[in-house]
């Protein structure tokens, strides 16, 4: 597992969270990732009056990275934060992260105010491939 603490990604994820569009849940979520090519991309959650159209911060960041680097984009490490809450990526985002990562890729999130990492394999042991 890449155990880089990713403090730069943490501050970028916080900045992205501040840009969330979340009038329905008030959850402001931000994600920042570094690609294997060295690119850094961010995303925030963007909600919609038709609730199911909402996109999470993590998928927004991953899709942003693919749009910029193309189909070969691979995630080196990813950090997600939510202002006032703490959680790892939701199930849908785990599946999308797994598509562009290895089982060993580190995913960072806050737990009791500290950044902790889990591998993609630990987050989604029964991944659909
Ligand atoms: N959300 C994320 O952005 N990422 C997650 O991993 C979980 C949930 C967002 C979606 C929605 O805008 C709000 O948080 C509440 O579910």
What does this 3D model show about the protein?
By secondary structure, the chain is an alpha+beta fold. About 30% of the residues lie in helices and about 25% in strands. The protein has four helices and five strands; from the N terminus they run αββαβαββα. It has a five-stranded mixed beta sheet with strand order 2-1-3-4-5. Strand 3 (about 75-80), helix 3 and strand 4 form a beta-alpha-beta unit. The longest helix has 13 residues, at about 55-70. The model has no long low-confidence stretch (mean pLDDT about 95). Tetrahydrodeoxyuridine binds near residues 22, 29, 45, 47 and 89. The site of tetrahydrodeoxyuridine (THU) has 13 residues, from helix 2.
Q: Which helices and strands, and how do they pair?
A:
Layout: H1 7-17, E1 29-35, E2 40-44, H2 57-69, E3 75-82, H3 91-99, E4 106-111, E5 114-119, H4 120-123
Residues 22, 25, 27, 29, 45, 47, 54, 56-58, 89-90, 93 line the site of tetrahydrodeoxyuridine (THU).
Strands in their spatial order, largest beta sheet: 2-1-3-4-5
- CATH homology group: Cytidine Deaminase, domain 2
Roughly how many Å apart are the termini? 21 Å
State the CATH class: Alpha Beta
Biggest sheet descriptor: 5 strands, mixed
């Amino acid at each position: 597992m890449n155990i880089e603490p990713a403090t730069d990604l943490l501050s970028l994820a916080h900045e992205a969270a501040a840009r969330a569009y979340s009038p329905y849940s008030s959850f402001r979520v931000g994600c920042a990732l570094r690609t294997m090519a060295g690119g850094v991309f961010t995303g925030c959650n963007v909600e919609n009056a038709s609730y199911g159209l909402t996109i999470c911060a993590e998928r927004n960041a991953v899709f942003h990275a693919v749009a910029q680097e193309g189909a070969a984009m691979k995630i080196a490490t990813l950090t997600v934060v939510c202002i006032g809450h703490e959680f790892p990526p939701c199930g849908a985002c785990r599946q999308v992260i797994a598509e562009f990562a290895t089982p060993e890729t580190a995913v960072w999130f806050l737990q009791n105010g500290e950044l902790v990492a889990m591998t993609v394999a630990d987050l989604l042991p029964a991944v659909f491939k």
